[in-house]
Specification:
With 184 residues, this protein is an alpha/beta fold. It has a single domain, classed as CinA-like (Maf protein). Helix content is 42%, strand content 17%. It contains 6 helices and 5 strands, in the order αβαβαααβββα. The protein has a 5-stranded mixed beta sheet with strand order 2-1-3-4-5, with helices on both faces. Helix 1 packs parallel to helix 6.
């Protein structure tokens, strides 16, 4: 399965914004199983902003490695907006990045723990105490469609948050010259 040109295009936009600011990104993935990291690393020069990722498929990995609250996981299960936010914040913290991304959900083919296939949560953890933005998605289709749609959605959410942060603060630390470009 490939990540698709559209996802790589959005990844390139987000990485370019991060590089211009001198900021970094970490990712926690569940249902996407590394596809977000693959889309990011398909972009030449991604290492200027992308620190790494954790594929946390098992619930205990979400709790023990990424620090998602065990009570929250027990009460709501892994497919939840707050869990997605905890994953994003955990990746950011664990990998010492400015921004964190996360995906969690049910890719299918059938429901999991009463949650229908195609139910996905994506989240972005912003720098400092900037908080977390989580988004619920309902993506119809087979497993491949749900996973690909999740990748596109989380990368678009990151890009939009990066743009919104610039618009809100009126600041962008764009660098001039070769350092501001993702191409080698």
């Amino acid at each position: 399965m490939t990540t698709g040109g559209e996802s790589v295009g959005v990844a390139a936009e987000a990485l370019d914004l991060l590089v211009r600011r001198g900021q970094t990104l970490a990712v926690a993935e569940s249902l996407t199983g590394g596809l977000v990291a693959a889309a990011l690393t398909d972009v030449p020069g991604a290492s200027r902003a992308f620190r790494g990722s954790v594929t946390a498929y098992a619930t205990d990995v979400k709790r023990e490695v990424l620090g998602v609250d065990g009570g929250l996981l027990a009460e709501r299960g892994p497919v939840d907006a707050e869990v997605a936010g905890g994953l994003a914040a955990g990746a950011r913290r664990l990998l010492a990045a400015d921004w964190g991304l996360a995906t969690t959900g049910v890719a299918g083919p059938g429901p999991q723990d009463g949650v229908p296939a195609g139910t996905v949560y994506v989240a972005v953890s912003r720098p400092g105490s900037g908080g977390v933005v989580a988004q619920r998605l309902r993506i119809p289709g087979d497993r491949a469609v749900v996973r690909a749609g999740s990748v596109r959605a989380v990368l678009a959410l990151l890009r939009d948050q990066l743009i919104h942060t610039v618009a809100r603060t009126g600041q962008d630390t764009e660098q001039n010259g070769d350092d501001g470009c993702l191409q080698p």
